């Protein structure tokens, strides 16, 4: 079993939260599942810039922590679908607030991103 060299501080609420949904696509995955996109390939197609491998890894982490449930039918090809658990549904108000904040500040962030790209392409 893997043992971290530096112990994680899981007494900090922010670190606990980031342990669950801190990952490049985890919040997008939770949002997609909440909107009814439940199959890994569909989730991947819905998240621009993602790779199927990373989506599958993050689905596995969300499953491990009880955010989502997995249902796989014993047919070929295997049909796997994900659903939010009650624990996972508890993240939805937070996700909604993050989305609201992002929409409110989207123009500013886009403007800053353009400046950043212009200055790093030299």
Automatic annotation (TrEMBL):
<dbReference type="Pfam" id="PF01638">
    <property type="entry name" value="HxlR"/>
</dbReference>
<dbReference type="InterPro" id="IPR036390">
    <property type="entry name" value="WH_DNA-bd_sf"/>
</dbReference>
<dbReference type="GO" id="GO:0003677">
    <property type="term" value="F:DNA binding"/>
</dbReference>
<feature type="domain" description="HTH hxlR-type">
    <location>
        <begin position="12"/>
        <end position="110"/>
    </location>
</feature>
<keyword id="KW-0805">Transcription regulation</keyword>
<dbReference type="InterPro" id="IPR036388">
    <property type="entry name" value="WH-like_DNA-bd_sf"/>
</dbReference>
<dbReference type="InterPro" id="IPR002577">
    <property type="entry name" value="HTH_HxlR"/>
</dbReference>
<keyword id="KW-0804">Transcription</keyword>
<keyword id="KW-0238">DNA-binding</keyword>
<protein>
    <submittedName>
        <fullName>Transcriptional regulator</fullName>
    </submittedName>
</protein>
